[in-house]
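COURSE: Structural Biology Practicum
ASSIGNMENT: Worksheet 4, Part C
STUDENT ID: 0417
INSTRUCTIONS: Below are two proteins. For each, the amino acid sequence is given first, followed by its structure token string. Answer the questions at the end about the second protein only.

PROTEIN I
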Amino acid sequence: MVLIPLKRLPWLTIMSRKANERLAHTERRVERRDKMLTHDKTKERATVEEVFDQTTRMVVFDMLNSGVFYELNGVVSSGKEARVYWGTDKEGKDLAVKIYLTSSAEFKKGMHKYIEGDPRFKDVKHDTRSLMTVWAQKEFRNLKEATDAKVRVPKPIAVKSNVVVMEFIGEKGVSAPSLKEQPPANPDKVYKLLVTYIKRLYQKAKIVHGDLSEYNIMMWKGKTVVFDMSQSVSIEHPLADSLLIRDLTNVNRFFSKLDVKVYPVEELHKMVVGK
């Protein structure tokens, strides 16, 4: 991995020496860990430059200096739209730092349908950085509204530009397993809880997850945790109902394979929307 040397960025002089030292230490740790994740040097260099562009670095510095997090370690997960890093606060508590790629042209194509029509986000510019900033704000708001509705999700901590900081579900940089990776010991109980969560999201938070499946539900310390909330939409969104039906269908499909007696989707739909 190749990172831009700190001395080449003159705007860094406005930062404190300790902050510079911490970020340099952070980047070295990220470099060491990322080298263990991939051997494709060309791809690796491109990804790092996408994530740590100058504006993103300034956002990271601001969060570092304001105490949002104290250290940024290696990559936990990497996707077409974002990378999630393992961070810690000054007390050593684990954090998830999600950085949306500001040059993710491929992902940009599919974002509009989840933003346009959502009354919470209007007049959004279509350049990639603006879209990623709104996407990050959208995830943060969805997490907050889900938390307020008593749905167990990663607790949102901070958001700025294309960076979201949230509770880390797992320990020491190792994420908790998804249901896909490790089916629950008591699937009947988890299924009923998820139905309750979907209902709370709809009736209390006024949102639909939009991409709920065994891939974005974790089990951690006996608790069921729903994550990946960036695409969640307001129930007023024109696609809300079709996305809700897809969520219910996905959940039923997975738990049916675990021999859970699931409710018919039509019945579940009525239970969730209250009709």
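PROTEIN II
(use this one for the questions)
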Amino acid sequence: MKAFRIVILTAVFSSILLVLPGCNTNSVSQRSTIWERELGAVLNTPEDPNRAHKDLNIKVDLIAKGSYGRRIFREMSPRYITIHSTQNYTGDAYAHAKALKRGALRGGVIGYLCWHFTVQDDAVIQHIPTDERGEHADFDGPGNRYSIGIEMCEHNGNSQTQTMERTAKLAANLMYHHKIPIDNIRAHYHWPRAGYSTPNKNCPHFLMESGKPGDTWRWFVGRINQHHQRLIAYDEAIQEQKRLEEEARRQNSIVQHVWHRITNWLRIG
């Protein structure tokens, strides 16, 4: 009887272990599935990059040149895009712009934090030019030296899904204009911070699994890629249209030439 109980307990315990991973997988899948359902699928049609840029509703509100986060000019040729979340539940994008402009956020190599864009559900605020280095990722590491920093707002009343979607479209637009590959879209987590007990920050936290990039992050990067492909497809469509127009002109030129030869021959006859 004792042996029988041990067998039963072992079977039950094994069943629990088998179920737990399935529960975790389902919760991850459910999160991105809910967001995808709310946002809808990305259209599979070309999109004009200029129109896409306009639709982002970017408001340029730069930190004054030579002050705070821009007190030292440090040129940058962007190779990456780094995604953050503010974890500030009271400040919107405009509040973050004011804080950066008055030097209220301290830290980084030069003593003041700064990044390139802050996104909320209905707008994007730009704080520094994309050809200048920010202080948002990893002190003097490649995350700061080579990446455009984007912060996603989390204030009360802000739509998280619409903020993510506007961020995805902004990242796609930046990829297009700066020729940045999809593999170079990075979470803040990716850039370790020297000297911290937890070097890799759980950021953007609502796109992480157990503090690390997982299925939800991959879903978000996939959505960025879909928006980017629409911009690329527009260029390809324009090039194809030009090719077809040039081919039509060439064919017309041949017809005109043949017709000219025939009419000349008929007049001689």
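ANSWER KEY EXCERPT:
Q1: The beta strands are 58-60, 80-85, 117-120, 123-126, 147-152, 185-187, 208-209, 212-213.
Q2: The chain has one domain: 26-238.
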